[in-house]
């Protein structure tokens, strides 16, 4: 349960980038499957944490990016399925020489403000 | 309506505090590790065995993160830690850089060579919060099962060493070491791994060598 810390961090980043006198209407956050586990309770904390700030009532949008593996033998890209018997092997050529190429993102992408 | 592009990492405030902790440790020439694992994997047992083996060679401090009790810090003190500090997280499922920053003044860093931080037993959250230690060590254990790298990929990706504890139980528990190691290798290629038993002491020397070698770097 570290959603509160995550919420406070998102709020601090948001307010730092909000021009004086403007109001934040939305925050777009990108979360990779391999990064911090964050669930929808963040919106609940957000409503409390952002009260009385320029971001009060703003909508939090999460764009979730699935983890992706790249097969270094045949070049195929594939997702991280549930633990299959052959582990993380490439579904195409069964090679086990693969690497993670997407899924570790965890950042505020942009915010929407109005005057 | 205007869109303001940002692209700023969440938890960067924690990362900044972690960098301050690191600077304090470096200034005192203390090498620090963050030990993470699920509850009961053997974090405290590993710390006890490490303390016993290195007593008299290195001055070792221990910070113990725990939800409420001081049992683990007491165990570390009994096993020979030169200094042991307890952090009660008050329900938080992980240590963060702020908690460590508050604990550091309780230690005389100049009198230490090595600082071992035992994180709260949890395989998910500690992986997201840097503390400022030089290395993060994950303790896996045989009874947890061989599928853990597949189920907790983020945790296995973010560590610099892996202890595979309780190998004395391999005859009794189904555990496909190859399957386990392949998952680890994909997520964290070349990760230093130490299969060992805190119970029998088998495998401990390789771990102790690695630890001593890291400190000299
Ligand atoms: N068989 C066996 N048991 C072990 C080994 N290492 C630890 N244990 C046992 O595992 C249990 C948990 O060990 P701890 O060292 O307290 O585990 P921990 O990770 O510190 O646990 P928490 O701090 O509560 O999360 C204890 O009963 C230990 O005796 C081992 O190598 N082999
Ligand atoms: Mg413990
Ligand atoms: Zn392939």
Task: Explain the overall architecture.
- The complex is a heterodimer of chains A (115) and B (217).
- Chain A has 115 residues and is an alpha+beta fold.
- Chain A has a single domain (2-114), classed as hypothetical protein PF0899 fold, CATH 3.30.2320.
- Chain A has helices at residues 3-17, 41-49, and strands at 23-32, 59-65, 68-71, 77-79, 98-102, 106-114.
- In chain A, the strands form 2 sheets. Chain A has a 3-stranded mixed β-sheet, with helices on one face.
- Chain B has 217 residues and is α/β, with parallel strands linked by helices.
- Chain B has a single domain, classed as P-loop containing nucleotide triphosphate hydrolases (Rossmann fold).
- Chain B is 35% helix and 22% strand.
- Chain B has helices at 12-27, 43-54, 71-78, 97-103, 148-151, 153-157, 177-187, 204-216; strands at residues 2-9, 31-36, 60-66, 83-88, 114-118, 135-141, 161-165, 192-195.
- A 7-stranded parallel β-sheet of chain B has the order 4-3-5-2-6-7-8, sandwiched between helices.
- In chain B, α1 packs parallel to α4 (97-103).
- Chain B is globular.
- The mean pLDDT of chain B is 94.
- The chains are: A alpha+beta (115), B alpha/beta (217).
- At the A-B interface, α1, β5 and β6 of A face β1, α1, α6 and α7 of B.
- Bound molecules: guanosine-5'-triphosphate, magnesium ion (MG) and zinc ion.
- Residues 43-44, 72, 118 of chain B line the site of magnesium ion (MG).
Give the arrangement of secondary structure elements.
The complex is a heterodimer of chains A (115) and B (217).
Chain A: H1 3-17, E1 23-32, H2 41-49, E2 59-65, E3 68-71, E4 77-79, E5 98-102, E6 106-114
Parallel strand pairs in A: 1-2
Antiparallel strand pairs in A: 1-6, 3-4, 3-5
Helix pairs in contact in A: 1-2
Chain B: E1 2-9, H1 12-27, E2 31-36, H2 43-54, E3 60-66, H3 71-78, E4 83-88, H4 97-103, E5 114-118, E6 135-141, H5 148-151, H6 153-157, E7 161-165, H7 177-187, E8 192-195, H8 204-216
Parallel strand pairs in B: 2-5, 2-6, 3-4, 3-5, 6-7, 7-8
Helix pairs in contact in B: 1-4, 2-3
The complex binds guanosine-5'-triphosphate, magnesium ion and zinc ion.
């Amino acid at each position: 349960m570290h959603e509160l810390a995550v919420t406070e961090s998102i709020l601090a980043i948001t307010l730092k980038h909000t021009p004086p006198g403007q109001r934040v209407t939305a925050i777009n956050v990108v979360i990779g499957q391999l990064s911090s586990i964050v669930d929808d309770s963040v919106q609940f904390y957000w409503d409390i944490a952002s009260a009385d700030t320029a971001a009060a009532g703003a909508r939090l949008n999460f764009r979730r990016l699935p983890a992706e593996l790249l097969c270094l033998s045949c070049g195929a890209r594939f997702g991280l399925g549930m633990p299959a018997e052959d582990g993380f092997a490439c579904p195409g050529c069964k090679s086990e020489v693969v690497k993670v190429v997407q899924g570790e993102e965890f950042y505020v992408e942009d915010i929407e403000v109005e005057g | 309506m205007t869109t303001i592009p940002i692209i700023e990492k969440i938890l960067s405030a924690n990362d900044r505090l972690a960098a301050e902790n690191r600077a304090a440790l470096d200034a005192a020439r203390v090498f620090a590790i963050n030990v993470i694992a699920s509850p009961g994997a053997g974090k405290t047992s590993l710390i006890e065995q490490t303390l016993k083996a290195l007593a008299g060679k290195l001055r070792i401090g221990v910070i113990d993160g725990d939800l409420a009790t001081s049992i683990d810090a007491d165990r570390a003190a009994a096993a020979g830690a030169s200094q042991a500090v307890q952090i009660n997280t008050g329900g938080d499922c992980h240590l963060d850089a702020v908690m460590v920053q508050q604990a550091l003044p309780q230690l005389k860093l100049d009198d230490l060579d090595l600082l071992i931080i035992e994180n709260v037993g949890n395989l998910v959250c500690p992986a997201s919060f840097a503390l400022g230690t030089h290395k993060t060590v994950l303790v896996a254990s045989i009874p947890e099962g061989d599928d853990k790298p597949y189920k907790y990929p983020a945790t296995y990706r973010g560590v610099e060493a892996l202890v595979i504890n309780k190998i004395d139980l391999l005859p009794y528990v189904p555990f496909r070491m190859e399957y386990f190691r392949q998952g680890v290798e994909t997520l964290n290629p070349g990760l230093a791994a130490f299969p060992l038993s805190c119970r029998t002491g088998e495998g401990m020397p390789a771990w102790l060598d690695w630890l001593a070698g890291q400190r000299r770097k």
